[in-house]
Amino acid sequence: MLKRLLPRQESFFQLFQRAADKLLLASIEFSNLLQHLDHQQHYVDLIAKHEEEADQIAHTNFELLHRTFITPFDRHDIHQLTSSLDDIIDLINRIAQRFPFYQLKSVPEEAIQLSQLSAEAAAYLKEAVYCLPSLNKSAVIFKHCDEINHVESKAHKVVLAGEKKLFMDEQDFKQFFKLKEIYSHTKLVINRCQDVANILKGIVLEYS
Q1: What pTM does this model have?
Q2: Per-residue pLDDT of the chain (208 residues; tens, 9 = 90+)
Q3: Domain ranges of the chain
Q4: Contacts of 83 (CB under 8 A, 6+ apart)
Q5: Cβ–Cβ under 8 Å, residues 193 and 122
Q6: Closest to 119 in 3D by CA, of 195, 46, 24
Q7: DSSP-derived secondary structure for 80-143
Q8: What is the CATH topology of the domain spanning 7-207?
Q9: For 155-183, b where at least 16 C-beta lie within 10 A, e where not — what string?
């Protein structure tokens, strides 16, 4: 366990876990949003609430970092992990906030698949974050991070298929750019999960 090697504040790990919880909840609600556009404002509001609570978690973590002399691992890594988790939720919220004025009645199946993959990536990331306090689980952390890479590979294929259909079939330019933006931003959520996975792997490698 890391706590056997270094003095630490347990709160850092609890805050990381709470942030990962919020990320997963926001990503699930975003997938629900795409599947239930007739109730989109409900999901937009839920995502905004998760984002607001995640911001507070990040703020608390930064304050703790400022007050703590000895940290469980490098201060830069703590700052980077905190910021990166919060940035993903911010990104999901920014996408969701566009929907009320997009006035979409439906989205392609590929967009829904992509949102589900983003939730899958967030779920693997949550599992990895929950394993972070224990170096005995370093192999499990790497496994979850590798699963995020597999999700990203699937997402890349889904985006290509979806954008191909847009270029071939969509005649409404406004609709085209709305859907293109949904694809690119949702894929970016998965890429950012991959970035955080790399941060976690770096932490594990440094302390294992």
Answers
A1: 0.91
A2: 444 434 455 688 999 999 999 999 999 999 999 999 999 999 999 999 999 999 999 999 999 888 887 788 888 999 999 999 999 999 999 999 999 999 898 999 999 999 999 999 999 999 999 999 876 789 999 999 999 999 999 999 999 999 999 899 878 888 899 999 999 999 999 999 999 999 999 999 887 6
A3: 7-207
A4: 58
A5: yes
A6: 24
A7: HHHHHHHHHHHHHHHHHHHHHHH--S---HHHHHHHHHHHHHHHHHHHHHHHTT-GGGHHHHHH
A8: Methane Monooxygenase Hydroxylase; Chain G, domain 1 (1.20.58)
A9: beebbeebbeebeeebeeeeeeebbbebb
| Residue appearing with tokens 């699930």 | 28
Say which amino acid occupies 100: P
Sign of CA dihedral 14, 19, 23, 26: positive
- Written as six digits, the tokens of 188 are 């970016």
